[in-house]
């Protein structure tokens, strides 16, 4: 069974930093693109960033470029999101998400999410 | 960037109803479209990928259709567990991924 378990969320002041982690199990982590998707309270879904299997290819939504960094450690079956210069609009539940098996970038497995609150 | 527009934003229906949700893309995405169901306090769940392929384990009352810029998700006979919010997502490339705004299916 595929499992994705996020951690690292919490309350942080504007301008602060936070590092999210996601531990994967139940599949060969190094074979998959991985993603972070977020959802602000009461709002819709927003893709944040993704990373390819060996970590060399990364993409970000425009609103986090230059502030967030996605990375992975295939030996530890782990995905990370380093978030710097946090803003109130970054407040959201952050989901660790796996790409689907078939060709294309859809999301077939989601973690339970970790809440990030940016507030003074 | 490709914008995804879902309609309606809210839909009131009864158990047993046939329900259709529409998703429009601002430019052609071929059939690179997925549908998700999300219940309150839970992570989204994949229902459909590549516009019409049913994810394993998803009931056959869910179906997807469309190509290019217009897509639909149909629930043939609404069940009590189907009251939720539904999102479409385009995946034209790894570098630009966008979701629709969501459609909340409520009990009539």
What can you see in these coordinates?
The complex is a heterodimer of chains A (120) and B (108). Chain A has strands spanning 3-7, 10-12, 18-25, 34-39, 45-51, 58-60, 68-73, 78-83, 92-99, 107-110, 114-118. Chain A has 120 residues and is mainly β. In chain A, the strands form 2 sheets. In chain A, strands 2, 4, 5, 6, 9, 10 and 11 form a 7-stranded mixed β-sheet that branches. In chain A, strand 5 and strand 6 form a beta hairpin. Chain A is globular. The N and C termini of chain A lie far apart (40 Å). The mean pLDDT of chain A is 97. Chain B is an all-beta fold and 108 residues long. Chain B is built from no helices and 11 strands. Chain B has strands spanning 4-7, 10-13, 19-25, 33-38, 45-49, 53-54, 62-67, 70-75, 85-93, 96-99, 103-107. In chain B, the strands form 2 sheets. In chain B, strands 2, 4, 5, 6, 9, 10 and 11 form a 7-stranded mixed β-sheet that branches. In chain B, strands 1-3-8-7 form a 4-stranded antiparallel β-sheet, with no helix packed on it. At the A-B interface, strand 5 and strand 10 of A face strand 4, strand 5, strand 9 and strand 10 of B.
Write the layout of secondary structure elements.
The complex is a heterodimer of chains A (120) and B (108).
Chain A: E1 3-7, E2 10-12, E3 18-25, E4 34-39, E5 45-51, E6 58-60, E7 68-73, E8 78-83, E9 92-99, E10 107-110, E11 114-118
Parallel strand pairs in A: 2-11
Antiparallel strand pairs in A: 1-3, 3-8, 4-5, 4-9, 5-6, 7-8, 9-10, 9-11
Chain B: E1 4-7, E2 10-13, E3 19-25, E4 33-38, E5 45-49, E6 53-54, E7 62-67, E8 70-75, E9 85-93, E10 96-99, E11 103-107
């Amino acid at each position: 069974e595929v499992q994705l378990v996020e951690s690292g969320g919490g309350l942080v002041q504007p301008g602060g930093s936070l590092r999210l982690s996601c531990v994967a199990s139940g599949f060969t982590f190094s074979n998959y693109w991985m993603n972070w998707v977020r959802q602000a309270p009461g709002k819709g879904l927003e893709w944040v960033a993704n990373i390819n299997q060996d970590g060399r290819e990364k993409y970000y939504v425009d609103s986090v470029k230059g502030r967030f960094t996605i990375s992975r450690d295939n030996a530890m079956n782990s995905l990370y999101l380093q978030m710097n210069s946090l803003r109130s609009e970054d407040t959201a539940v952050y989901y660790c998400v796996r790409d689907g098996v078939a060709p294309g970038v859809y999301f077939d497995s989601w973690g339970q999410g970790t809440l990030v609150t940016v507030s003074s | 960037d490709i914008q995804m527009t879902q309609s309606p934003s809210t839909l009131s229906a009864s158990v047993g109803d046939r329900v259709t949700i529409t998703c429009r893309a601002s430019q052609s995405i071929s059939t690179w479209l997925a549908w998700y169901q999300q219940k309150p306090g839970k992570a989204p769940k994949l229902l459909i990928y590549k516009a019409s392929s049913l994810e394993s384990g998803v009931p056959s009352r869910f179906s997807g259709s469309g190509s290019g810029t217009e897509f639909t998700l149909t629930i043939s006979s609404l069940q009590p567990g189907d009251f939720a919010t539904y999102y479409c997502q385009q995946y034209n490339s790894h570098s630009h991924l966008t979701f629709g705004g969501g459609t909340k299916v409520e009990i009539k």
